[in-house]
Fold this protein.
Amino acid sequence: MSHSFVEQLESRTFLSITPATPASPTGGVFNDPTIQADRQAVEDAAHQLRTDVRSGRSTIRADQQAVRTEFKNLIDDKGADAVKTALQPLLDQLRTDEKAKNKALRTAVKDLSAAKRTWTKTLLADLKAWRHARVSGDDQSAIDAAKKKLDDDKAAAKSALDPIRDNLLAVKDKWRPIITADHDAIQNKLEDLDPALKPLYAKLDADASSLETKLSDDQKSLADATDKLKTDLQNLKNPTANA
């Protein structure tokens, strides 16, 4: 089941998306037919994205409501205690895995935060020394030495932080399929208890997957239209650049 995408969709702010176009003055390059067409393409792409988000949210919420309604029917039919007893071992496993995942994430995040604090102090000191060398009238060799230390420490910071970031990603990658399997096990048990839930879950999954693809395509269309506008503006302002 597409749990993560459904949750992300609910928290996204796509409805606030506005075309990333410059403010339109009364004249100049914005009177150019190509630029006007580009701006319209950006506005159309943004409108399509907003429309699909609204429509998709409505569909997903309707699917979720259908599942909730049928789940209530299951409770009414078999009793809350019976359903809870059937689900409890699976819920316990999910809770255990969630706790383990969160503990591992907290450790990884703590390690990354500590390393970033250490390197931030070092780089700020380097930057301060470089600025001091430039404004205090030091000779060029002192300025170059301060700049070299800053550059070397930047590279060292990246080398030190990259493995810690990779570890954080590895923790997420490790637990993602485990938590997904826990959710799937709960869903499968519910479908065993009430077969009427199976097509409802299937529709929710299909609609979520379809919407995810549609929004990805919409976002690409918006990005492509915005890039074309930027490129055409640049070419119009600097016609010799691509000559």
